[in-house]
Design goal:
alpha+beta, about 60 residues, 3 helices, three-stranded antiparallel β-sheet
């Protein structure tokens, strides 16, 4: 188990769809530590840190 996970794996953990996770990454709403998630190049899979917190959880805490 590495430091990063795929959008499919994140979606499974957070009970949402891979498309929604990808949108969060693209829109900069899913923070991986203190910075947005990264891609190696456009079209490549997103690198999502395992300690990332999805925006829906952050919103519910407010």
């Amino acid at each position: 188990m590495g430091e990063y996970m795929s959008s499919k794996e994140a979606a499974s953990i957070w009970n949402t769809t891979p498309a929604r996770v990808t949108k969060w990454c693209r829109d900069g709403k899913l923070k991986c530590g203190t910075k947005p998630c990264e891609q190696d190049k456009p079209g490549a899979p997103w690198r999502i840190r395992r300690d990332a917190i999805p925006p829906i959880i952050i919103k519910n805490k407010q």
